[in-house]
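Dear H.,

Thanks for agreeing to be a second pair of eyes. The structure we're designing against is below in token form, covering all 104 positions.
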């Protein structure tokens, strides 16, 4: 989104069927962190960030896969942030799985 939006309140939306995800504050680096709901349908969607007045700041494609993992085709920082958070979650799940296997 860019540092010009730092400190602004923005709305995150998931589309194919419009779904409001959350109201967020853009950090000093121009990013927001978005958590995808567990009940979001798998498949292709669009992630949209809008100003409080509803005007679109940016959007990007996102592919939701099983277990909350996402891959994106967008270049927006917000999509990259969502992907980064998902990769961290995936790494934590792998570590938890290995620990369970060792203790079994």
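And this is the sequence the design step returned. I haven't edited it by hand at all.
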């Amino acid at each position: 989104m860019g540092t010009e939006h730092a400190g602004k309140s923005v709305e995150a939306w998931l589309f194919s069927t419009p779904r409001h995800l959350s109201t967020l504050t853009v950090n000093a680096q121009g990013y927001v962190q978005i958590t995808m709901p567990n009940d979001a349908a798998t498949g292709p969607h669009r992630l949209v960030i809008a100003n409080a007045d509803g005007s679109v700041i940016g959007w990007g494609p996102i592919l939701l896969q099983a277990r909350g993992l996402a891959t994106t085709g967008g270049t927006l920082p917000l999509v990259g942030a969502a992907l980064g958070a998902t990769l961290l979650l995936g790494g934590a799940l792998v570590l938890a799985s290995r620990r369970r296997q060792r203790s079994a």
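Two observations from my side: The chain has a mean pLDDT of 76. The CA atoms of residues 38 and 75 lie 24 Å apart.

Warmly,
E.
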